[in-house]
Amino acid sequence: MDRVEIVEVGPRDGLQNLPAVVPVADRIAFANRLIAAGLKRIEIGSFVSPKAVPQMADTASVVQAVERVPGLRLMALVPNARGAEDAIAAGLTELEFVLSVSDDHNRANVRRTTAESIAELRSVCAGIDPERKLTMRFGLAASFHCPFAGRTEKARTLGVIEEVLAIREDVEIALADTTGKAHPMQVQALASEALARFGTSARFAFHGHDTSGFGIANVLAAYQAGIRTFDGAAAGLGGCPFAPGASGNTATEDIVNLFHGMGIDTGVNLPRLLEAADMAAGFPGAIPGSHIRLLPRQAA
Ligand code: COA
Ligand code: ZN
User: Fold this and answer.
1) DSSP label at 250?
2) Correct CATH for 5-299 of 3.40.1000.20, 3.40.630.30, 3.40.50.1240, 3.20.20.70
3) Using one digit for the tens of pLDDT, what is the confidence trace for 62-78?
4) Ligand 2: distance of its center to the CA of 220 in Å?
5) Cβ–ligand 1 contact at 47 (below 6 Å)
6) Per-residue confidence (pLDDT) for residue 130, from 0 to 100
7) Which of 139, 185, 256, 273 is most exposed, with the fewest beta carbons within 10 Å of its own?
8) What pairs with residue 145 in β-bridges?
């Protein structure tokens, strides 16, 4: 059976934009429910300035407490060297370095131009002891569309991919539709070209938001282009606090349901994932965005 890999980003993307800070104990309980549902790759939080994103303060305590099961991979988002150091000190071996392909969004998000973030990434990578065997993901925000500058030209995103792969190969690159305004043809075009040009030096993932209702269609477009790793957030929560107008991630349960419907394995237990999604939907201020979660359960 064909198989895809699901990366659950709810504990990071899902919670970072909620109006109220979710207490650490609830963040841990949420992550444990996701783990119980069979999710093996989880973005557990971020190591960013707590002034910029108070919702992600004390991710180290979440990392420390979540249940460990065989094969579980935890990843955290970092924007700079300080974040990478803190994530490693918390015991993580998988980091997602975030940078936006758009200068305007990158400035709003991390107060740097894209080139400055690439320079920061270079120094982060140079500072990592090769003995550490860190797994790296480069998260390319606004790969398709910028909340301030509009559509991102494909050549711009491909150029940034080329630059970051010159720093380090053997990484995963997440093509992020931060605003949820990409359409399937755009996803197909960028994903195909990225895989054709860089598929031997990097692995690719698709990170989508469902702002325009294209979330599942974009996942399918990325799959048809050859991508096999997909980000989702339980209950469709999520959004970058510095990307006005964006709504939640494409719901993990909808992605899992899509692939199971097509006879493609995800390793995820959908009924148990729905329980985790129910918890996420109940966080104060949450605006859930999924489809399958709202159907009568016996029909799921
Ligand atoms: N973790 C925790 N604190 C950090 C930090 C990190 N990774 N990086 C910097 N800081 C602290 C500094 O110690 C400093 O603290 P102080 O005010 O108490 O002295 C403060 O943040 C400002 O540091 P500075 O280096 O000047 O950063 P900045 O103000 O230019 O902000 C970022 C840059 C990247 C730290 C900040 O914009 C940020 O955290 N952005 C996160 C964006 C995000 O998570 N977006 C959603 C996901 S895409
Ligand atoms: Zn996102």
Assistant:
1) P
2) 3.20.20.70
3) 999 999 999 999 999 99
4) 18
5) yes
6) 80
7) 185
8) 151
| Ramachandran sector of residue 249 (left: φ over 0; alpha: ψ -120 to 50; beta: rest) | beta
Report domain extents, the chain: 5-299
CB of residue 100 inside a 6 A radius of ligand 1: no
pTM to 2 decimals? Answer: 0.97
The proportion of the chain whose per-residue pLDDT surpasses 90, expressed as a percent, equals: 96
In this prediction, residue 299 has a pLDDT band, given cuts at 50, 70 and 90, of low
Q: Does ligand 1 come within 6 angstroms of the Cβ of 142?
A: no
In this structure, which ligand is nearest to the CA of 85? 1
Q: Is the CB of 117 under 6 A from ligand 1?
A: no
What per-residue confidence (pLDDT) applies to 129?
Answer: 83
Q: Which two tokens stand for residue 210?
A: 């469902």
Residue located nearest, by CA, to atom 46 of ligand 1: 240
Atom 42 of ligand 1: nearest residue by CA position: 109
